[in-house]
Amino acid sequence: MKFLFDDESFDYETLRAAGFACYGGAELGEVITTARRIPDGDEAAWLREWEATARRVHSLGEAAASAGHRVSAREALLRASNYYRTAEFYRRDDPANDSKARELSRLARETFWAAAQLMDSPVIPVSIPYADTTLPGYLYLVDDSGAPRPTVIFNSGFDSTLEESYFALAAGAVARGYNVLAFDGPGQGAVIREQGLTFRHDWEAVITPVVDFALTRPEIDSTRISLFGYSLGGYLAARAAAFEPRLAALILDDGLYDYHAAHERIMPPFLSEWIAQGRDEEANAVAALLMAVSTTTRWALRNGRWTFGAASPADYVRRTADYTLAGVADRIQCPTLVFEAENDLFFKGEAPRLHEALTCKKELITGTEAEGAGEHCHTGAVLLTLQRLFDWLDDTHATQ
User: Fold this and answer.
1) Has 231 been annotated as catalytic?
2) d(CA 367, CA 355)
3) pLDDT tens per residue across span 195-250
4) On the chain, which terminus has fewer CB atoms closer than 10 Å, C or N?
5) Which GO terms describe its molecular function (predicted)?
6) CATH number of the domain bearing residue 224
């Protein structure tokens, strides 16, 4: 579903930014005029122009806040947060030591928190105990009554952030009477940036402490805790659910059975063989050629190297081998909703694979191009996707 760019990665990421307009994360005119100033595939221009838009809108938000215009400030700051995240997206040469990437990421977090304090329903920052540290999170509440309510845990993915949880899930959840507990885990958001913790395949080690924390909150109904996996979270959440019996339901947007297989499908067979054999010098040389001609490949391999703690693209791809639900999917016991995207740029074919492997009560919903929901994570169709998600969850809870 072409939007504003010929470059498939630029096009998808622009649609992603624009798609959050339904919950105040973007203004369509701002997205279009920003995109017009960016040549196809020019990552330097991408950062420059999205940052310029973010800073302009940020200034609008600060001015409105200073003048006591609460709603105007909140709206502008929410958009600025999304634009800062978008600006930083391709900055992956050396993100751990990149001052510009750190600055933009920090601004995305700060503007979101400033907006959150101006919302009509409570947003509580939380620290979730994990190993010998804590994971940052937000608890989005329906109201301040303290009444226990059904709650969805938001588990983000390969590059999504804690702040993105508001647009992707929490705003729609709160409007329907659901709380949301969102967090950054290892490899994600502020955790990879500030703590250097990388992804792990045994994600139950992350979700079990999150559920433990959720059970300490009186606002959360302990019998109606669901887990939502977003993008790579479609694997992570499913893996965790196989070992976490306290979940009332599982939602995967989109379903991901084998993360490693998704990489192998887009690589020449000889390259997969070289990586498996440890012939990294040759494999990395070929990967460099692929990265030179594909924005999607260049970004994915750089982001993977960083968030998986890998030494090279070949090392990263090899590390994904453990990220499979083979021998695990049939252990999931709670009712499960699997979303599929007809034109998934990254994980095409994985959702039906996962759905087939499940032995629990299950449903598969395919978002199609004809209805504008065919892109990865149904970007551009947030309202339709959340309608399907929460109607299913309402019905699931009603029968439990």
Assistant:
1) yes
2) 15
3) 999 999 999 999 999 999 999 999 999 999 999 999 999 999 999 999 999 999 99
4) C
5) hydrolase activity
6) 3.40.50.1820
